Amino acid sequence: MTHVKPRKDSDLSKKAQVEEMFDNIAHRYDFLNHFLSVGIDNWWRKVTINSLKESAPKRILDVATGTGDLAFEALKRLNPESIVGLDLSEGMLSKARVKAKERGIGKIEFVKGDSERIIFDDQEFDAVTVAFGVRNFENLQQGLAEIYRVMKPGARVAILEFSKPQKFPIKQLYNFYFKYILPVFGRLVSKDATAYQYLPESVQAFPEGDAFVNILTKTGFTSCKNRPLTFGICSLYTAVK
Q1: What is the second-level CATH architecture of the domain 14-240?
Q2: How confident is the model at residue 1 (pLDDT cuts 50, 70, 90)?
Q3: Do 128 and 61 meet the contact criterion of CB atoms below 8 Å apart?
Q4: d(CA 199, CA 32)
Q5: pLDDT the model gives residue 3
Q6: How many CA atoms lie within 13 A of 153 on its CB side?
Q7: Higher pLDDT, 194 or 128
Q8: Cβ pair 68, 108 in contact under 8 A
Q9: Where are the beta strands (DSSP E) in the chain?
Q10: Is the bond leading into 80 cis (omega within 30 degrees of zero)?
Q11: Could you give the CA distance from residue 191 to residue 112 in angstroms, rounded to a whole number?
Q12: What is the mean pLDDT of the chain?
């Protein structure tokens, strides 16, 4: 998985390429997210945050926060004391801060930082969330270990990530859409030639389902579960420290 990079002709690390890619598409990211998923991404985020309701977390870390949509959903549904949104891309974080200011939100702090070297102390958060971010880690095991480190004992993690449908005809429709429609439309709107080509390639390479649950277990998490969403187009992984 770590070998799939946005730009095959670049000598930059995957991490540096991902940062550059998201800086380039930040201006159109929200529109493309909602349009290309036909708005279903909003429901996916609600399901992700609702999975944490029972534990009522007071301090939440949203890793790979992007433009902050999952953090905003967490604030609305969980009403924690504070949320930190962490991301590599300053371009994405700038969009998140503008959205927070426009909505009069002060409980969320958006911080630039590396998900594989999280700048916070051990056992600092009651919950960690990630939406469509772990797929972009340069070292998946290292990123998950860092998430585990900053969680309090008993804290929960909720990870939303793309997966691959297995049943006919969703599988065939999905593959056609991901291979032919999404890259072309994404390129036209975002003006980035590689971002929406990288997306299907990175989804194909990601160790989804039981494979990812096994990685979570090896990292030290317990009660690891996988819930496929929307015919398996997306999956919600939950676990406890």
Answers
A1: 3-Layer(aba) Sandwich (3.40)
A2: very low
A3: yes
A4: 12
A5: 65
A6: 0
A7: 128
A8: yes
A9: 59-63, 82-87, 108-112, 125-131, 151-162, 222-229, 234-240
A10: no
A11: 24
A12: 92
